[in-house]
Each structure stands twice: as C-alpha cells, then as structure tokens.
Design a protein that fits this description.
Blueprint (H helix, E strand, L loop, with lengths): L11 E4 L2 E11 L7 E8 L5 E7 L5 E3 L1 E12 L2 E5 L6 E4 L1 H4 L11 E7 L2 E6 L3 E8 L13 E6 L4 E5 L7 E5 L4 E6 L2
Antiparallel strand pairs: 1-2, 1-5, 2-3, 3-4, 6-7, 6-9, 7-8, 9-10, 11-12, 11-14, 12-13, 14-15
Length: 187
C-alpha cells in the first residue's frame, strides 16, 4: 500500500471514506522535525476543496482513475449525455459536473472524462474548439484605426470579444481555457 510520500497531483485517494482528487501536494521536512506531506484535495461527492497533512509514512488508499474519450451527444432535460465512440455506451452527466464546459460543447464534440469507480468525476475539454457565430453586430466605419474588438455570440450562447471583420455564420477557433477568439476557420 502506498504511503504519504507517494502522493502526487492528479491522483485519486480515499480520505475518511470519501474519494478525493489531489489538487496540490508538497513534501516538507521542517528543521529537526519529522517529514510530512501537505496536500489540497477536492471531494468528488461535494466538489469542495480541503487541506490535509499526512505523515510521510502514513498509508493511503489510491483509487484507480479511468480516462476515456467521449463524444457529446445530446441533452436529456438538465443532464448531458455523452457516448463512448468505440462501444456506443451512453453516460449521463449532471450540469454541476459539466460546469463552464457547457459554453464550449456542441454535438459530436470530443472531451475526456475521468471516471472514478465507474462514475464520471472530471470533464476535460480540448484546448480549443471550433464554434459557429450566431450573432455579430456590424462594425462602425472608422473604427479600424486600432485593434478594435466587438462582442459576438457563439452557437452555445457564449459571448466573446472578436475582431470587427467577423460576421454571422463564420466558424471560429476559440480557446477553452481563457474563452478568447483565436482565429477564423475555413468551412
């Protein structure tokens, strides 16, 4: 069984009979005291983060993680349904787990879902996605002297800043980490 020294960022462990993901982990040896591990964990059940301190020799129970590429299919009421492209097995995910990813997922979008004990735990978007512009106001003549941006609406309802030359119906590459316009994409 692994000890506190083996704890690493991204691992899933059982702490007080609850599964949690390690967000941060620091190994410390203060002066003449015994070494310990200080970690920040996020509960899978509640989504809340908390700090723990473990002895470097204290035993921990590691929970295996399963990363799968999944394709977004459709919404079922409030929930989101993803399908495994190999087995066509559907997985229903709650809106709380999807979170801000809702601004970037459209039908057939591929995401990576991390499963813990066969339950979806984390959704990871690709670094960029291609979305269609549904609403783009016309630029005002004379605004082109500097790098002027305007607010546009994407097919998911997300509003972002884009250059004046972007028109309704165009497809754009959008950075999912910062929610920013990257470039136009040819149809």
């Amino acid at each position: 069984m692994p000890s506190g020294n083996d704890l690493r960022k991204g691992m899933a462990i059982k702490h007080k009979s609850e599964v949690a993901i390690v967000l941060e982990c620091q190994h410390r040896t203060p002066g003449n005291l015994r070494a310990f591990v200080q970690a920040t964990l996020r509960s899978i059940r509640t989504g809340k983060s908390f700090d723990i301190r473990l002895s470097s020799t204290e035993k921990i129970e590691v929970v295996p993680l399963d990363h799968r590429k999944m394709e977004y299919s459709y919404r079922d009421g409030e929930d989101f349904v993803f399908t495994d492209p190999d087995t066509y097995e559907p997985v229903t995910v709650t809106p709380e787990l999807v979170g801000n990813a809702v601004d970037y997922i459209v039908e057939n979008c591929i995401v990576e879902i991390t499963f813990i004990e066969e339950n979806p735990a984390v959704i990871e978007l690709p670094s960029s996605v291609v979305l269609t512009v549904t609403e783009s106001p016309e630029g005002v003549k004379g605004d082109s002297t500097t790098n002027v941006m305007k607010t546009i609406t994407l097919e998911t309802g997300k509003k972002i800043q884009a250059p004046l030359f972007i028109k309704t119906g165009e497809r754009l590459k959008v950075d999912t980490r910062e929610g920013k316009y990257m470039e136009r994409v040819n149809k």
